[in-house]
Amino acid sequence: MDILYKNLLAFSWQDIVMILIGCLLIYLAICKEMEPSLLLPMGFGTILVNIPFSDALTGPIKELYSAGIANELFPLLLFIGIGAMIDFGPLLSNPKLMFFGAAAQFGIFFTLCMASIFFPEIDAASIAIIGAADGPTSIAVANTLGSKYVGAITVAAYSYMALVPIIQPPVIKLLTTKKERQIKMPYEQKSVSKLTRIMFPIIITVVASAIVPQATALIGFLMFGNLIRECGVLDSLSETAQKVLANLITIFLGISVAFNMTSEQFLKPDTLLILGLGLIAFIVDTAGGVLFAKLLNVFSKKKINPMIGAAGISAFPMSGRIVHKMALEEDPQNFILMHSIGVNVSGQIASVIAGGIILNLFS
Amino acid sequence: MNISFNPMNFVSNLRYMGIGMLVIFVVIGIIIGATILINYLFSNKK
């Protein structure tokens, strides 16, 4: 009869809390539709690893973690799928938009300084990369640096990406006037040749990797996925990368990240602080992009709607759509979607480069 | 718990902020230049 209650009695309050956190992630995924593809597997994995004597923790989840997270393989494979989903057309027709993507990475380095007040350098750098607003980059960088907070960093990154519609608008409104938000930016359609679309991922990989070699894997896999999409002769591979590969890796990634979601690793004051610093990263990212656009307006005759700077974070395509929606709310005739999406796409590239820079500085 | 409190670290790490943002803008600037060149070389010529 011991077997009936021996294992039940092994539950600690910490295990119960973590199981509740797992349930919360599942609730957010299903009922609030916040990044369900990641939060649901993470939530369920959290439940699995916090049951006392769980063989999921010592068995398959540990193996999946070793096979795909510890060696950064899963995030990189996911990047192939993400690259295959991205259309760089709006960016190629107006490449200068990429500067906004660069400016919107400011939150990473600001958060690095803030986090260093509380954490050692390696952990501070890993926490700062939450500001990349990109799950695979956050996981890859935190793992490579050997941070012990990969679980908390992953939860923060994906949760805040899902909360972008709540985080960004107040920051944007605080930093801009109504008149600025109403600035119109006419879109001049420029055709982009197929050869340009093919050469872009190749040349960007070579250029970015030559300067920041630690970003080679991240930018290379992203651009590889894009090349599969743009080459025109691999439609089935492109479709596989966008759908099957991305979905498969997402499942494995989500559940294997739970390896870091045990109560010993997660239930610490450090975790709350990391969640707070992650929020700061997103806020300062948004502010950085908007303020950069306002700075350019001081010198530029052709005014820029400063809201597009906020789209420079890597939460694609949500951030671009939010900015467009805010512009329409101010003026129903103001269509800045192509600009905001172009900036949003550039944020994907800039965040990966930022990840490489962090690795270069701290590994 | 691995938290300490060293506010001076904020100041000492500002150099990473400077270096990081400078490198990002330089790399993005080069990418923009490369993209403009690609557009020029491989555009649909009429």
Write up this protein:
The complex is a heterodimer of chains A (363) and B (46). The mean pLDDT of chain A is 90. By secondary structure, chain A is mostly helical. Helix content of chain A is 74%, strand content 0%. Chain A is built from 22 helices and no strands. Chain A is globular. Chain B has 46 residues and is mainly α. Chain B has helices at residues 8-12, 14-42. The longest helix of chain B is centred in the middle third of the chain and has 29 residues, at 14-42. The interface between A and B is large, with 50 and 35 residues.
Task: Give the tags.
heterodimer, A: mainly alpha, 22 helices, globular, B: 46 residues, mainly alpha
Write a compact overview of the structure shown:
The complex is a heterodimer of chains A (363) and B (46). Chain A is mainly alpha-helical and 363 residues long.
Helix share bin of chain A? over 70%
**End-to-end CA span of chain A:** 53 Å
According to DSSP, the number of beta strands of chain B is 0
Radius of gyration of chain A: 21 Å
In total, the number of strands of chain A is 0
